[in-house]
């Protein structure tokens, strides 16, 4: 006999229909008031095969194999990577290692650790960029409104017409001299919102290793990720 998967019932006065959702490897049955637990249990039993398929998919996605790797790069320097369960979720960067603590109350530590690694990259990169973008914007005589760090799949940065300059958090794994290129590149878009000849003249005026930086990024782009 196959055991019925555990599920949670959430009832709402506004809901008119019944829906079964799989969220964070948990089965949640959304139902209007007036529907009996017995009926909802029978419905879960009828949908058991569908539920198990989706639970298995989420479990596979939430347990990426990269967490058994032993090192991670921070500004192109390799650090020993240690994962530990603790009372509070924090991280500590030492001279040669990074220790990431995951709170014991976290129900899905595997997927949560992806966010922890992204937060680490974002904080470290933000600290570096905040210093360098101030330097380069002053040097180039350009002003921006806001700086953001976020995850991009296929770009290193962007610049909006409103002066919002964004950077890919994966740049935290990149050498600082290459990050400087991305900063100058995006700042130049504050004056030229294209890749015209004048745009590249401006970039090369304030950054001399354009070709080398582009080669590095093109070669390494597919190797950098948090997943």
From TrEMBL:
Domain YgjP-like metallopeptidase: 16-219
Protein name: YgjP-like metallopeptidase domain-containing protein
CDD domains reported for this sequence: M48_yhfN_like
Cross-referenced InterPro entries: UTP_pyrophosphatase-like, YgjP-like_metallopeptidase
Pfam families reported in the protein's UniProt record: YgjP-like (PF01863)
Provenance organism: Pseudoalteromonas ulvae
């Amino acid at each position: 006999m196959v055991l019925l998967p555990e599920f949670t019932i959430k009832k709402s006065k506004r809901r008119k229909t019944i829906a079964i959702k799989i969220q964070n490897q948990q089965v949640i049955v959304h139902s209007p008031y007036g529907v009996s637990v017995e009926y909802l249990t029978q419905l879960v039993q009828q949908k058991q095969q569908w539920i198990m398929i989706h639970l298995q998919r989420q479990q596979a996605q939430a347990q990426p194999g990269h967490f058994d790797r032993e090192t991670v790069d921070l500004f192109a320097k390799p650090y020993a990577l240690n994962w530990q369960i603790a009372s509070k979720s924090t991280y500590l960067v030492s001279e040669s290692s990074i220790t990431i603590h995951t709170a014991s109350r976290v129900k899905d530590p595997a997927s949560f650790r992806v966010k922890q690694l992204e937060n680490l990259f974002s904080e470290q990169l933000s600290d570096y960029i905040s210093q360098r973008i101030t330097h380069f914007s002053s040097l180039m005589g350009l002003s921006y409104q806001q700086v953001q760090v976020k995850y991009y799949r296929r770009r290193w940065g962007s610049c909006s017409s409103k002066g919002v300059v964004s950077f890919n958090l994966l740049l935290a794994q990149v050498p600082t001299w290459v990050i400087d290129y991305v900063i100058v590149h995006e700042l130049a878009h504050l004056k030229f919102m294209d890749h015209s000849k004048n745009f590249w003249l401006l970039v090369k005026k304030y950054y001399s290793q354009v070709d080398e930086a582009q080669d590095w990024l093109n070669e390494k782009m597919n190797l950098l990720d948090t997943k």
